[in-house]
Amino acid sequence: MLFPVLIKKAYQRNMQYRASHIINTAASAAFGLIYVSIWKGIGQPAGGDGYTLDNVIHYVAFNQVCLWITLFITNGLGIERSVRTGQISLDLMRPVHLFYHLMCREWGQIGYQLLYKSLPIYILYIITLHLPVPTSAVTWLGTAAALTMAAYMNICINYLIGVTALWTTESNWLFWVHNAISTVLSGFLIPVDWLPGWLQTVSRLSFYPYMQYFPSKIYLGLTQASAVLSVSLLWCILLTALCLAATSVVRKKLEVQGG
Fold first, then answer.
1. What is the pLDDT of residues 27-38, one digit of tens each?
2. pTM (2 decimals)?
3. Is 37 part of any domain?
4. Distance from chain centroid for Cα 196
5. Among 116, 117, 121, 224, which is least packed, fewest CB within 10 Å?
6. Phi, then psi, of 203 in degrees rounded to 5
């Protein structure tokens, strides 16, 4: 029962800040419209690997919708703050695994952002940008599975970023480096196919394309889910193993600021 309780508590906590979050949602939607306007100004891509201007606009728009699910989550899952306050010592004493505890809590955050941020932006883009709505159940299921695994991968990455706070007093920079790299390698603003050859190779050997690029392509019907989800699952398994290993190390080295 712990899993649904933690999700519910995180969801309810966010409900206290709905007015503030409306501003974030409006700003995010506006940024997406700006990106689309830039592409409209550029015009039809020449030799765009099968992409048309409409495809690119829809690709950029759907990526903006996905950001609140796949990228914009709690910095380091809040571990750095816990280390600074000493809360981490109590978290490690709980009769529940630290990773499981923080992961469950973050799913509540993601659920809230899905309903109150991604969904309104999605509806707005359907109306203003004519973002296509898939009619195939297979496409919907593939997109949902890809986004779920993308969100989970980012939870794992932020957990690994967070636990570095046990060795350094400042791990924030890792979070922003991760965000910066993700903007390029995940295909957020432009498809991975348009990156320079060597950067494409780096991207495809990493987990980043499975956060934005492939979920968007599945949604737009530009690739088959079956060709993507198995690799996403492998990344989820690998990152989970790293998180569990990191927790084992953290339990042996606990250093709280001021104590």
1. 888 888 888 888
2. 0.87
3. yes
4. 24
5. 224
6. -60, -50
